[in-house]
Design a protein that fits this description.
- The chain has twelve helices and ten strands.
- By secondary structure, it is of the alpha/beta class.
- Strands 1, 2, 3, 4, 5, 6, 7, 8, 9 and 10 form a ten-stranded mixed sheet that branches.
- Helix 1 packs parallel to helix 2.
């Protein structure tokens, strides 16, 4: 095990969007803070993977509960594993993940919570061996919910995403593998967003690369933790997402994707449209009318011709 001295390394220049077909090296980034109670199970779920060309980067925020002892014990049991542990103060889990990106040497990145576990020993092999991987910058599957929370335990979360769906709900970051050069192109996690910085990152990635869905359960995702802070709502993200999505994805304010009533930033967008002009706002409201309304108006107009 390598105990690293805290330090910064700059990101490399962005790569290209054409990828070699060879199976790449994977960096598994695990942010920790006082994670002694759950970390060993997390690490064991990585150790049992049939895909073995990976490194484990444990980015610790200065734990005081014996987290380092768990890491040392894991390394002692598996001395051939490429494990690196960095411990220094950070500004939260997304800051730790950003530091992990800087330390990573793999061409693919995966972020696993210290209280989460990979679902099956073939998870990485299935994702990285999937058809269409060579053209994708992001691979993702599903997660199974574990523990108490707003979603029933044992339920699969995810499925295949479209842009409209991504504007309504996020892909769980425990379900995603990112090409490192895609992250280098779009930038790191925005630390202004305390609980949904991963959603913001996914929108930026959607704008520049292909997302490939793989029908596999990637991880057991434990409810609570970061996702439950402030009621599970990132208010600054909601305030910004309409303008961010239009800027990242080059969408018009009249694009149906951002005018859907289930768009997470719809209410903010509506206020922006009204401030632009009442007429513009009225046009946007017409765009939001359900398709059934247009059909009804068409039938009515035919009766009076």
């Amino acid at each position: 095990m390598k105990i690293a001295t805290p330090g910064q390394s700059s990101l490399q220049k962005p790569g290209t969007d054409s990828y070699p077909a060879t199976v790449p090296r994977l960096s598994v980034v695990i942010p920790t803070y006082n994670s002694a109670a759950t970390l060993r199970s997390c690490l064991d779920s990585v150790d049992t993977q049939s895909f073995e060309d990976y490194e484990i980067l444990i980015q610790d925020g200065g734990s005081t509960d014996g987290t380092a002892d768990v890491v040392r014990a894991f390394h002692k049991a598996h001395p051939s594993r490429d494990v690196r542990w960095f411990s220094e103060p950070d500004r939260g889990v997304y800051d730790a993940m950003n530091k992990g990106i800087r330390h990573a040497s793999g061409s693919w990145l995966y972020f696993l919570g210290s209280d989460d576990e990979l679902f099956h020993e073939s998870t990485f092999e299935t994702l990285l061996g999937s058809a269409g991987r060579e053209q994708a910058g992001v691979l993702y599957g599903d997660v199974e919910m574990i523990g108490h929370g707003p979603t029933q335990e044992g339920v699969l979360y995810g499925g295949q995403f479209t842009l409209t769906k991504l504007l309504r709900q996020n892909i769980c970051h425990q379900a995603i593998l990112y090409r490192k050069d895609v992250i280098e192109k779009v930038g790191l996690y925005n630390l202004s967003y305390k609980t949904w910085a991963d959603w913001d990152l996914n929108l930026r990635c959607w704008a520049v690369t292909r997302f490939q869905y793989v029908n596999v359960t990637v991880a057991n995702f434990r409810l609570g933790g970061l996702s439950s802070q402030d009621g599970g709502v990132d208010r600054l993200f909601i305030q910004d997402v309409a303008e961010n999505a239009m800027r990242y994805l080059k969408l018009s304010p009249l694009n149906p994707a951002v005018n859907a009533r289930d768009f997470i930033g719809w209410e903010v967008l509506e206020a922006l449209q009204y401030r632009k002009s009442p007429g513009y706002h009225a046009l946007a409201r017409l765009i939001r009318l359900p398709r059934e309304t247009y059909k009804l108006l068409g039938r009515v107009s035919k009766r009076f011709r």
